[in-house]
């Protein structure tokens, strides 16, 4: 009996010592709670989207609590949330610049076509692994809806082979931006402005062969803009929304029609 009892007591003693050691370590090495940051975190929407530029809501809450971040960066929460946070911290609420996600592609089946018949997983990320995707334009939207699948606000639909985003539903969470393997989605301010709906960086002739609405890098838009809002880089035009006045002059000279006017009402 003693022969059986002794090993049991030894194991129990080791367990007791280890348990006490862990308990002491948890007390000594415990990270003190940041009550202010936790209070701010409770005010934030909890989307953890990173649209504010921080590592989720907890990162933004900590930065706000320590005065290291600008109030007004939470687009999903909006002005009401930022005012609650400002009141909690005894600060003045910053104005939220509302933005919407935009798909920079007009590669519908009216303008382009598939170059292969894809029968794999219905996912843009999966299809992109197969020779760069299914479409004739290797830069364009594949229309398999990875962006729509991650959108929690039903703001994205795929119609006629290309994704489109409803600005009235978009909350600026940035999940669609991350989900697009072609990097076709970016944020634009909710204001009247010209936007280039193309990302093709091939030379003009090659770009037009694969899509009727592809930017050809002709620079007519850049030369026409009186405000220096347009730059052509790698054979593709880009519009700076901060400089764009929404005059529409660039639309009139864009032969492919890849520049459209985004109007927020």
Features of the shown structure:
265 residues, alpha+beta
**First CA to last CA: what distance?**
86 Å
Major β-sheet, in short?
2 strands, antiparallel
The pLDDT mean sits at 89
Biggest sheet: strand arrangement? 1-4
Short description:
By secondary structure, the protein is of the alpha+beta class. It has helices spanning 2-28, 35-43, 56-65, 78-89, 124-127, 146-150, 175-179, 204-210, 220-224, 249-253; strands at residues 99-103, 156-159, 162-165, 185-189, 193-196, 230-233, 236-239, 259-262. α2 packs across α3.
Please tell me about this protein's structure:
This protein is flat. Helices cover 34% and strands 13% of the residues. The protein has a two-stranded antiparallel ribbon. By secondary structure, the chain is α+β, with helices and mostly antiparallel strands.
List the helices and strands and how they pair.
Blueprint: H1 2-28, H2 35-43, H3 56-65, H4 78-89, E1 99-103, H5 124-127, H6 146-150, E2 156-159, E3 162-165, H7 175-179, E4 185-189, E5 193-196, H8 204-210, H9 220-224, E6 230-233, E7 236-239, H10 249-253, E8 259-262
Antiparallel strand pairs: 1-4, 2-3, 5-8, 6-7
Helix pairs in contact: 2-3, 2-4
């Amino acid at each position: 009996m003693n022969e059986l009892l002794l090993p049991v007591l030894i194991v129990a003693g080791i367990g007791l010592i280890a348990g006490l050691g862990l308990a002491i370590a948890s007390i000594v090495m415990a990270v003190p709670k940041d009550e202010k940051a936790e209070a701010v975190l409770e005010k934030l929407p909890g989307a953890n989207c990173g649209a504010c530029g921080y590592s989720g809501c907890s990162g933004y809450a900590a930065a706000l609590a320590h005065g290291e971040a600008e109030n007004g960066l939470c687009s999903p929460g909006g002005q009401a949330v930022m005012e609650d946070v400002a009141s909690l911290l005894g600060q003045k609420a910053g104005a939220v610049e509302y933005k919407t996600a935009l798909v920079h592609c007009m590669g519908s089946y009216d303008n382009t076509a598939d170059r292969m018949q894809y029968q794999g997983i219905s996912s843009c990320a999966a299809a992109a692994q197969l020779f760069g995707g299914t479409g004739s334009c290797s830069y364009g939207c594949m229309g398999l809806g990875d962006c729509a699948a991650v959108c929690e606000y039903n703001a994205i639909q795929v119609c006629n082979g290309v994704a489109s985003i409803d600005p009235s539903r978009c909350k600026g969470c940035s999940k669609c931006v991350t989900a697009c393997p072609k990097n076709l989605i970016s944020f634009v301010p909710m204001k009247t402005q010209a936007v280039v709906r193309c990302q093709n960086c091939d030379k003009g002739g090659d770009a037009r062969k694969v899509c009727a609405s592809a930017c050809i890098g002709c620079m007519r838009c850049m030369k026409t803009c009186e405000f220096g809002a347009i730059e052509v880089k790698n054979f593709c035009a880009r519009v700076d929304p901060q400089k764009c006045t929404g005059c529409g002059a660039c639309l009139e000279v864009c032969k492919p029609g890849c520049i459209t006017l985004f109007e927020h009402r």
